[in-house]
Design goal:
This protein has 519 residues and is α/β, with parallel strands linked by helices. It contains 17 helices and 16 strands. Helix 2 runs antiparallel to helix 11 (266-277), helix 3 crosses helix 4 (78-88) and helix 8 (177-190) runs parallel beside helix 9 (210-219). It binds 3-methyl-2-oxobutanoic acid and zinc ion (ZN).
Length: 519
């Protein structure tokens, strides 16, 4: 009989707070819906007191995602906890996750508090959270470097105060599997009331051991694992959800545990996250990397042809990578497109199908065979458009060696079209300067990446940009067979997002002004 391990996904909190992985509230809701389809037990949706955007995202996810428990992070203070609850209150299952550091290093240098003060603050935090929600998780930050006697005292006290889950993070990724497993074992032996709580682990990957440490922990009694899609997270990241889940699925002989995760949703989750953040996984990443299931060496290929078991320990299908039964092209209709998306696990609304079909026919004019990854790129490319949006109407570039590139650009804002031109250091730079002239939005491009979704000269390229407008970073993403057009679309998405944020802010300021005038 396999024991159940709860999967606590922190892609939208620990993952999202790491550099290069930020998402806006709409994107976070989209990702949360996919995590719901993946059937994780808990979604940590954010850190509500950290920013307005985080608060809004947690509130929206709590309102709209009903399957998993929704958790919000808070430091161990009443203000933080209240703010977390304010965001979580509409969740059908809410969890307040409160934390404080317990290691002497953190107490001395960061918190400047004594062990007794931290113990008392921990108890008070859990009691406070418990008055708001039944489900309260307490984390001893830097647990793996905390004095074991003190750690046991804190754990016993917070369980007595009502913590339903106690989490022991390896915050700096310092632990090694044998030692981390022993830590969990010791705690289970020494903490009297440990049976009243679920013991959780949260491992960082600084030494590349996050998944190994999580496995060692469950072998010693931990029953919740905190992890992220693609292993994103602070510094070297967190334990990767897909690696942990597939290790359990592939080695039930040694690991008699199960999770509720629908493994066939893993690849889709990984692709969506990369599309939303621009953070691609390396080709040789376990489970979801482009090479994870490809066999290049002649001897391996020969073995695979004779029996897949020779070199394949799990199938690509088991994580949701499907092989085409149908290649789409210029003559494929809406029905074939809909059917292919269904085979890939996406059920599209009529509106989504209309949008995707429009993009698909454009792509089919340029590319003979449209592969599954192209289709997913088109779907993830769907741009949110509102009244502030500029759309590319036409683009001409002149470029060459020894000449400055020139771009002539026509943008439409839904009411009228605007034409301007600019020169620059290459066609993309020239086009970006022309966008600036038309939109009057002067941004600083801080990141630009381009990668091909499939292979061949007509492959679809995905472009990601990060642009700073008035000290705020906005991201943009687009997919196209033409890298200059893709680059323009991605930049325009960042501009449109900045314009829409500016409009939302001036609407808020207007309300405040009206309220002040009314007093
Ligand atoms: O790594 C860590 O210690 C954390 C806690 C806030 C849970 O992310
Ligand atoms: Zn962490």
């Amino acid at each position: 009989m396999k024991e159940n391990i709860y999967i606590f996904d922190t892609t939208l909190r620990d993952g999202e707070q790491s550099p290069g992985c930020s998402m806006n509230p709409k994107e976070k809701v989209k990702m949360a819906r996919q995590l719901e389809a993946l059937n994780v037990d808990v979604i940590e949706a954010g850190f509500p007191i950290a920013s307005e955007g985080d608060f809004e995202a947690v509130r929206e996810i709590a309102r709209s995602v009903k399957g998993p428990t929704i958790a919000g992070l808070s430091r161990a203070t009443p203000v933080d906890i209240d703010r977390a609850y304010e965001a979580l209150q509409y969740a059908s299952k809410a969890r307040i996750h409160t934390f404080i550091a317990t290691s002497d290093i953190h107490l001395k240098y960061k918190l400047k508090k004594s062990r007794e003060e931290v113990l008392e603050q921990s108890i008070k935090a859990v009691e406070h959270a418990k008055r708001l929600t039944q489900d309260v998780e307490f984390s001893c930050e830097d647990a793996s470097r905390t004095d074991i006697d003190y750690l046991c005292r804190v754990i016993e006290a917070v369980i007595a105060a009502g913590a339903t889950v106690v989490n022991l993070p390896d915050t700096v990724g310092y632990a090694i599997p044998s030692e981390y497993g022993d830590l969990i074992k010791t705690i289970r032996e020494r903490v009297k009331n440990i049976g009243n709580t679920v013991l959780s682990v949260h491992c960082h990957n600084d030494l590349g051991l996050a998944v190994a440490n999580s496995i060692a922990a469950v072998m010693n009694g931990a029953r919740q694992v905190e992890c992220t899609i693609n292993g994103i997270g602070e510094r070297a990241g967190n334990a990767s959800l897909e690696e942990f889940v597939m290790a359990l699925r592939t080695r039930p002989d040694s690991l008699p545990f199960q999770t509720g995760v629908i493994a066939e949703e893993i690849y889709k989750s990984s692709r969506l996250l990369s599309s939303l953040t621009g953070m691609m996984v390396q080709r040789n990443k376990a489970i979801v990397g482009a090479n994870a299931f490809s066999h290049e060496a002649g001897i391996h290929q020969d073995g695979i042809i004779k029996s897949r078991m020779t070199y394949e320990i799990m199938t690509p299908e088991s994580v949701g990578i499907k092989h085409s039964t149908l290649v789409l092209g210029k003559h494929s209709g809406r029905h074939a497109l809909k059917k292919r998306f269904e085979e890939l696990g996406y059920s599209l609304s009529t509106e989504e199908l209309d949008n995707v079909y429009r993009e698909f026919t454009g792509l089919a004019d340029k590319k003979k065979e449209i592969l599954d990854d192209d289709l997913v790129a088109i779907l993830n490319n769907e741009v949110e458009k509102d009244e502030f949006s500029y759309v590319l109407a036409s683009l001409q570039v002149m470029t060459g060696t020894g000449v400055r590139s020139t771009a002539v650009l026509e943008l439409s804002d839904g009411r009228q079209s605007h034409v301007d031109s600019a020169t620059g250091d290459g066609p993309v730079d020239a086009a970006y300067k022309a966008i600036e002239r038309i939109t009057k939005m002067n941004g600083q491009l801080v990141d630009y990446t381009i990668s091909s979704v499939t292979w061949g000269g007509d492959a679809v390229g995905e472009v990601f940009v990060k642009v700073i407008f008035n000290d705020v970073v906005f991201t943009g993403h687009a997919a196209s067979t033409d890298i200059v057009t893709g680059s323009v679309d991605a930049y325009l998405q960042a501009v449109n997002r900045a314009l829409s944020a500016r409009a939302a802010k001036s609407a808020d300021d207007e309300i405040v002004r009206n309220q002040a005038n009314a007093v």
